[in-house]
Amino acid sequence: MKKVKTADFIIKQLKLLPQFKPLNRFYCYKKFISLLIPRYQRAIDFVYIRNDTLYIAVLHPGVNMELNSNKDFLKSILTMLINEDVECKDLKASKIVLLNRNRRAKRFKKGDNQQQETIPHYKERALGEFKIKTEDKELKNRFIDIKEIIKKGYM
User: Fold this and answer.
1) What tens digit of pLDDT does each residue of 99-149 get?
2) Domain boundaries 14-100, corresponding CATH code
């Protein structure tokens, strides 16, 4: 009788091959993040280890500061993961570096650093009708100028 190979068995065998080591590391990184409290899980964008250093990219600077003060906690979780999970025994990091990463940060191309003039694409709703209650001549002239600009519809 022929033994039927399940998908789980095939994936485990593939992960043992040297060319698929990154898959195993990806599993371990996800496992590391899942061991953290949910607030930290949501705040961490990605994790990787390079040159005996654990890099953690955090989406919010406040969480970055909080994790920075709890580096021993992160090291203990990593040590616990290495000891408990056989697949993650290769993960070793003596240092932890926290990175700020803002997903919404715009990427600028060369030449995009010039300021662009913004033109409002809406009809001005103000009528420019308001009372000026000041005796100061200079301030009164400024308000009159503002009134005229509003009436023209350029503001």
Assistant:
1) 987 655 555 555 555 666 677 676 767 777 888 888 899 999 999 998 888
2) 3.30.70
Question: Which residue pairs, CB below 8 angstroms and at least 24 apart, start in 49-55?
Answer: 49/25, 49/91, 49/92, 49/93, 52/92, 52/93, 52/94, 52/95, 53/93, 53/94, 53/95, 53/96, 53/97, 54/78, 54/93, 54/95, 54/96, 54/97, 55/97, 55/99
Q: Where are the domains of the chain?
A: 14-100, 121-155
Structure tokens at 66: 């909080």
Considering just the CA atoms, what is the radius of gyration of the chain in Å?
29
pLDDT tens digit sequence for 70-103: 999 999 999 999 999 888 888 888 999 999 876 5
